[in-house]
Model the fold of this input.
Amino acid sequence: VKYTILKKLEEHFPHYVSGEAISEMLGVSRTAIWKHINELRKEGYIIESSSKKGYRLQVLPDVLNVHEIKKGLETRILGREIECFESISSTNTYAKEIAQKGCKDGTVVVANCQTQGRGRLGRQWNSEPGKGIWMSVVLKPEILPQDIQIITLAAAVAVVKAIKAATGIETGIKWPNDIILDGKKLCGILTEMICEMERINCLILGIGINVNHDMSDFPPDLSDKAISLKMYIDQKNNADKSIENMPVRRSEIIKNVLNELEILYREINNGNVTKIANEWKKYSVTIGSRVKVVIKEIEYTGTAIDITDDGKLVVRCDDGVTREILSGEISVRGILGYV
Ligand code: BTX
Done:
């Protein structure tokens, strides 16, 4: 009942819906409605009430819950099962636990806050409470363990498209797994797998996106490396103070990520990996750029010229040799402090 009331308020946003209309529609008393409204308020929805006009949503809020994410979700596999936590150690760690117990393909874990968010290679991922998207998707793709990189590429493409659809903001992908905005890191992707011999049993795709952070929400060591969508929107709107910035709705982006990712996931399962690589290239800020790579402790500089279908970066090095890089760190000139 609570979410049916919410749905009505959303349909009429920003106008009022009378208590009487809600009461008639749902067949519940005015007192019951009032109780549900108060519960919604506790969940973070800002609802105004007027004895004459009824109830109205003041803003379309950035509340993270299963109801918000599922609204408008067009998928058949991803996000059919969603678990949403107020706080968790790491969505990837939890997703791995439920994957081992046999959860469904496409199960999604989301949290408002992570106390031990993880990056790659044992690094930490800063997961400010209530500000970002900290989510993991359990996947069971029909690929070999050595081809796992294609999933990371697909996830990056899905995130770029999702952000564009929800906010109009264009981001770029730095090989293999960073989403970049204004030369800074907006999103990181951590792909982990549970393998059995030659076969992938399960894959955990962790996605962290900075959404409503102000600069002061990041620790000092990230202040010149990290950015959020809100920081970018605030910067753009600085010139025009008349624009009141609404929070970016995390549920909107999550839903778009799942919708986009499912399309790519189907392509992967059908063996159409070239399509993923081509999509990836469209959004790449790496290809065509000067890069620095370290291979077996030797540093090379060169120009990134392509990626292979299985996600290797092709670099024409300054010593004349063209090398394919499977994994690791690269620096791209103009991004994250590399000059
Ligand atoms: P990464 O190893 O590429 O990036 C980690 C590095 O990025 C850190 O060492 C730090 O310099 C920087 N960093 C840390 N936090 C942030 C942040 N919020 N914004 C920008 N830069 C940051 C990238 O690893 C993979 C991150 C995946 C995070 C998701 S969140 C949901 C899921 N659960 C979980 O524990 N991890 C994933």
